Amino acid sequence: MVTSTSRLLTAICALAGSAAAVTPLKVQGKDFVNSKTGDRFQILGVDYQPGGSSGFSKDSDPLSDGDVCMRDAALMQRLGINTIRVYNLEPTLDHNKCASIFNAAGIYMILDVNSPLTNGYLDRTAPWTTYTNAYYHQVFGVIEAFKAFDNTLGFFAGNEVINEDATRLAPAYVRAVIRDMKDYIAKQSDRAIPVGYSAADVRDILMDTSNYFECEMKNSTSSRADFFGLNSYSWCGDASYKSSGFDVLTQDFSNATLPVFFSEYGCNEVKPRIFTEVQALYGEEMTQAFSGGLVYEWTQEENEYGLVKIDDDGSVTTLIDFDNLQKQFNKLDISRITTSNSTQTSVTPPTCDPSLISNSTFYNAWNLPEAPSKVSDYIKNGLPNKPVGALVSVTGGKIPQKVVNHNGKEISNVELKVLASDAVNTPSPSNDDSSSSSTSGTSTGTATASSSSGASTKTNAASSLNGAPAVALGGVSGFFMLLASLL
Predict the structure, then answer these.
(1) Beta-carbon neighbour count of residue 116 at 10 Å?
(2) Reported pTM
(3) What membrane topology is given (predicted)?
């Protein structure tokens, strides 16, 4: 006879191997959708590059310091962020702690595969000179470093490569990079991870750029972008849907057949920023064309776009822009914007044709360059000496860094809350200076997360950020409910 104690121990062992992780997203028509439930996913995001370009090197990038990520993820939970974008990454560094922290916090990651270092980017003026085998050690290295994380939403193959300074052939090279990345993911990843492009808001060529990446090529279906990002700063101060030109953008992208979102937004010509564009972006008109957006940017740098200011000792000041954005997020009807819509998911892309391109200066052919000599081998056999990413255990709780608001008042209750399995962080009106963070999912500040969902993910349930063992039990309340049912 099996005793209650034995059954309890068996259940605990089963739970220890379970995942407190977000669910991978997939592209369906013009929406990102939850791969389990089919619910629509709208990006409530922020661009995350602490220290700016000078904060990146071969020895350090935004996702290589677990203590910093823990601090920032806890604050992002309060704000209501569900996605970050990271521009510069060094694939050889250890990103397991940071990726696991954001996963536990219910926050997805969109990652640029390029870097400003040598062999890390495409030269827009002569892309054929940088489209090399060495370049793909950076591109495929980032894929390898992050493919195991369920909260890896997607990869950007390029950022503002195509603009007034770019050579006419630049679009073909970027689309070739998308092709090579998608072919690599298809062979070397256990799941499909979307790949897209982030465009500058150059209106003369914006729709040509979108059409170029969106259309389907009969002989190269893998080169089609899975999503399209737009860096747009046309809404400044207390503008309006029409005065900002958001109405034009909505019309332009209303017939898109892939997810479109603002990969950067948040004009700071008028300070402080009040973020009234949030209500338009997530309003009924724009959500038919856009999948949300990422505010530029998390930390205060010389350009003064920050939501928070980081002091030399690691302490944080939440700026007035943080509070203003939080108030706008808290007004949103999350239920409405995440409701699935069959008209959004059933669209089909157009066939590539020169008629899709209206500007005479834009490249109107889809003759993509052949991949560099060793790339086909990398795709078939994997990148040599590739990095390996795997989720590690995360223990939630109060962060050690001091946090004050823009008035100098200390915020004493900032904590990382490990969400229940499949939960995503959402805004909550209770997240203010006098209340604790409240996020979606059944969780507590002392819960832990140990692995990604999916059998293929490697689990390190015996390690945690502070070196102490941690076990994923799906939240304390879930544990006691289980205990009561077994005894």
Answers:
(1) 10
(2) 0.86
(3) Lipid-anchor; GPI-anchor
